[in-house]
Amino acid sequence: MIRVMAISVLFLTCLSGSLSQAQVPQVPWSLIETTTPREPYANALFDLAEQHYPAIFTGHQSTVILDGYSTMGWEWSWIYRYYPVTKTYLALQSLDYSVYMSGPSFGPDFIKAGYYFDLMKLFPSGIIRPGSNRCVNIGSPEPGIAAFYRGIEDFESTEDYIVSWESGENGGIEVTRHAGSFPDHLHFYTEKEHIITAGGLRYLASSSRTYTGQDPEMDQVEPVPYVKSKESVYQAPGLLLGPSSRYCLGQSWLSAPVAKTVNYTYDPGSIAGSKQTESALTETLFSVNYVIGVNIPVTVRAGTFNTVAIWTNNTAHFIDVETGILVAGTEHIRDALDSRIESWRWKYRHEQELYAIESSGMCPVELCGNN
Fold first, then answer.
1. Which residues contact 226 (CB under 8 A, 6 or more apart)?
2. For residues 97 and 114, is the Cβ–Cβ distance under 8 A?
3. Are 47 and 40 in contact (CB under 8 A)?
4. Pick from 366, 322, 348: which is nearest to 145 by CA?
5. What is the C-alpha to C-alpha distance for residues 165 and 325, in angstroms, rounded to an integer?
6. Residues whose CB falls within 8 Å of the CB of residue 6, separated by 6 or more in sequence, listed in order
7. What are the beta bridge partners of residue 290?
């Protein structure tokens, strides 16, 4: 723990002083499977319906997309599958992600079954589609390895951080992330995750995040130092993160909502007796995950890596095949006009780029200079 804290101090000091602005990772998008964000969502629902209700949605059918619809300037599509054996339609309307069904079990007219995000919560976590025979086995980061990153937003701020891996209890892995927001240098956090493997899948069993810095909400000349922490324990086995090693093109999995106990502690350092602690039982958000590319060469500051590309909700991750380390990430945050996805208009973009991998855990000279 002392070594990790020392690493983070050195890391944050050197990155803040000498790291130049990162370049957007070079990704050969032409090699990525041609798909739009809506297709993995729709296919996940259709595949799960076929698996869990085969008497109604009989046989694996192809997905059909009908484009060209518009409502008050919003373009949308019908995405559906037709099951000829039972003469049944299962359709997703992309404007507000409503789900409709029609057939002998439901009547001659299309009936609205509900919203996609509500219906997906009814299915358990697990592999939805095994994928094609284009597969790769991904390695795991070795204990003691540290990876250095810079995250860039459309705004002026950046987030520099180090991720390190250590052996955990019961054969699990402890992943620690130290991060700081620049250029203001006011806010830092340390995040620890305990990841376990069961049945060929990886799960997040527990996590904690501790914030330190100066409270921007205090209206005074000198901001108030504070420590704020959040500890989460997930219902066993935990939040599904994905396969433990083997990834195949077209493979998809559902991370269903998981109940978790969260403990919050807020401790303004300069206000005596004001420490606050509370607990809550809450639920994680579900996610649909989809392998959209294998053996994709991605170039970042740390070099060129052979990667697997994974689409998780609205984020594309590129994972190094040899080490299992994140090489680059592109996160697109949708327009927050509605809690459901109404369109794919991006509000802002966040890029993550790998700068270096070090077994010593010390910030390399080429990254941090001689500081």
1. 211, 212, 213, 214, 215, 266, 267, 268, 269
2. no
3. no
4. 322
5. 10
6. none
7. 252, 311
Map the chain to HEC letters: CHHHHHHHHHHHHHHHHHCCCCCCCECCHHHCCCCCCHHHHHHHHHHHHHHHCCCCCCCCCCCEEEEEEEECCEEEEEEEEEECCCCEEEEEECCCCEEEEEECCCEEEEEEEEEHHHHHHHCCCEEEECCCCCEEECCCCCCCCEEEEEEEECCCCEEEEEEEEEECHHHCEEEEEEEEEECCCCEEEEEEEEEEEECCEEEEEEEEEEEEEEECCCCCCCCEEEEEEEEEEECCCCEEEEECCEEECCCEEEECCCEEEEEEEEEECCCCCCCEEEEEEEECCCEEEEEEEEEEEEEECCEEEEEEEEEECCEEEEEECCCCCEEEEEEEEECCCCCCCCCCCEEEEEEEEEEEEECCCCCCHHHHCCC
State residue 134's pLDDT score: 92
* Contact of 328 with 315, CB cutoff 8 Å: no
Checking phi first, is residue 301 left (phi over 0); if not, alpha (psi -120 to 50) or beta?
alpha
Residue type, 322: E
Distance, CA of 363 to CA of 13 (rounded, Å): 10
Q: Quick one: tokens of 214?
A: 């100066």
pLDDT digits (tens, 9 = 90+) for 74-103: 778 899 999 999 999 999 988 888 999 999
Structure confidence by residue, pLDDT tens digits, 139-162: 999 998 999 888 776 555 667 788
pLDDT in tens, 285-298: 888 898 989 999 99
Nearest to 160 by CA among 20, 302, 316, 300: 20
pTM of the entire predicted model: 0.80
In whole angstroms, give the CA distance from residue 371 to residue 362: 12
Name the phi and psi angles at 158, rounded to 5.
-130, 165
Q: What is the CA angle 156-159-161, rounded to 5?
A: 160
pLDDT tens, residue by residue, 37-87: 567 788 899 999 999 999 999 999 999 999 878 777 777 889 999 999 999
- Rounded-to-integer distance, Cα 274 and Cα 172, Å: 36
